[in-house]
Amino acid sequence: MATKLDGKVSGTFKVVADAGLQLGYEKSKQENTPVALQIVKDCMEIAKTASPPADPERAQVAGFEQQADRAMQEWQKKQVNETPSLTLSRNSARKGQKVTVVGKEFWANEMVDITVHATLVAQVEADGNGSFSASVTIPQSAPPPSFDTTITAVGKSSVKSASAPFHTA
């Protein structure tokens, strides 16, 4: 990911470029990157629309937009390359017993729903690296011992999901 969206302008674009662009980029490191980058692009479009057609700073704004586009493309490529995974402390347990679920490659700081078969058993927050570890109790509603099922984790923001095979003992 780009380390910074660089550049400053003055006049018509100063407020948008200095505040909107840098704030949007800083927010993108902590929150939803595609939304933050789209806000940056939208701010630049508003500034262009409000400025005279001959404003010489339009070229600089186009450069900012290209940086935002590149950052978005890099972010998308990274998301494709970072497929989430789920590891269980054991792949079998009785109803009422605990299983540790470890997830990786989710979005940083997003909430993740963990289900056993179709029952929500936990909601956890991924850390700054998109990883989490949670101890979950196998619910009474879990399928019978002869029925193979899964434990699944789904990111609330990213909608990234990972499953691991599981069955009740």
From TrEMBL:
Tell me where on the tree of life, at the top rank, the source sits.
Answer: Bacteria
Q: Where is this region: Disordered?
A: 50-72
Q: What is this protein called?
A: IPT/TIG domain-containing protein
Q: What is the lineage of its organism?
A: Bacteria, Bacillati, Actinomycetota, Actinomycetes, Pseudonocardiales
